[in-house]
Recover the amino acids of this structure.
């Protein structure tokens, strides 16, 4: 089951997952797979209202007792073991839903980043503030690398690079890799975080040393 969910991740997410400590690996996989699923909903063609209904389904499910969740869905099965608060995952849904707005101004970007960071905060233990900052920086950098509007891209890029990164605990090493590689791509003007041998070396350094 875990291997099937890993295949739903982006190459960057799989690289980050490889640096997760054994005891938190399944929680990180659950968060990354959930985030990837929501991103996929946003990319689907069709009426926005239908995609919003899919996000609403996830929001409603996460507000119910896991014992009553539908069987046969690998992601739900893994999320039943989630060690964080399910309310944090509802915030992740809310964050992604911001992208349905017509215009991403500073306030919209802040809501998106705050929501998408919430899952990392739930796994942060005593490092909630650092996780909130890092999760928001990664969310904004990842968004900036995928937006079509030059103005919105510039705004997301500026927000992602606005603050100096705080150190994160070992348990959040995957987030260190995600934030570090997306930030590196923005600073270099690269189109993707995995742009060659330099990215692989950076990931190795971040994964081993956290900086």
């Amino acid at each position: 089951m875990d291997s099937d969910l890993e295949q739903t991740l982006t190459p960057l997410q799989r690289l980050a997952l490889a640096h997760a400590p054994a005891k938190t690996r399944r929680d990180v996989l659950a968060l990354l797979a959930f985030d990837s699923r929501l991103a996929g909903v946003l990319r689907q063609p069709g009426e926005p209202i239908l995609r919003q209904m899919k996000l609403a389904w996830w929001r409603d499910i996460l507000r119910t007792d896991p014992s009553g969740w539908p069987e046969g869905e690998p992601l739900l099965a893994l999320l039943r073991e989630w060690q964080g608060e399910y309310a944090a995952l509802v915030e992740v849904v809310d964050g992604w839903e911001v992208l349905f707005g017509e215009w991403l101004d500073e306030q919209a970007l802040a809501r998106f980043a705050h929501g998408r960071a919430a899952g990392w905060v739930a796994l942060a233990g005593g490092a909630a503030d650092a996780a909130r900052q890092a999760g928001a920086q990664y969310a904004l950098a990842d968004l900036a690398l995928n937006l079509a509007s030059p103005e919105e891209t510039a705004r997301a890029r500026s927000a992602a690079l606005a603050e100096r990164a705080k150190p994160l605990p070992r348990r959040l090493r995957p987030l260190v890799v995600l934030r570090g590689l997306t930030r590196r791509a923005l600073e270099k003007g690269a189109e993707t975080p995995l742009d060659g041998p330099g990215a692989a070396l950076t990931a190795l350094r971040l994964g081993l040393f956290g900086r």
